[in-house]
């Protein structure tokens, strides 16, 4: 676990925390924010948006990925995910696969708890046997 945020761009953390504040989570009351740094150096953020019809909600990571794609980039360099609990908030299984579509083995995933502590892992540690397109054949 990283002891400091020195390897994470401060703006990336700020965007994730700001996104979390805007999360719409009236059912779970668990607000999540995500911000990613793309290969072009731009930051894209998203928050979870719940819906009374449970499967129709959207995770924070999916929102951030959507804004990255909208901007024309398709490569995640780093992603910060912040949840509202004492524990770290790793991406759900579906979001791990969504991230896998745009990540590589060097993509860093920074998990931030509500105390500001950070745990950083390589994406390949979160989803070691992901499936999908070969990155070099796209």
Automatic annotation (TrEMBL):
Record's keyword terms, sorted: Hydrolase, Metal-binding, Zinc
Cofactor: Zn(2+)
A Pfam family recorded for this sequence: dCMP_cyt_deam_1
Catalyzed reaction equations: cytidine + H2O + H(+) = uridine + NH4(+); 2'-deoxycytidine + H2O + H(+) = 2'-deoxyuridine + NH4(+)
Chain ranges of the CMP/dCMP-type deaminase domain: 7-134
EC number of the protein: 3.5.4.5
Any GO molecular function: cytidine deaminase activity
Ranges in a coiled coil: none
Record function comment: This enzyme scavenges exogenous and endogenous cytidine and 2'-deoxycytidine for UMP synthesis.
Family, similarity comment: Belongs to the cytidine and deoxycytidylate deaminase family.
Record-given protein name: Cytidine deaminase
Organism: Paraglaciecola aquimarina
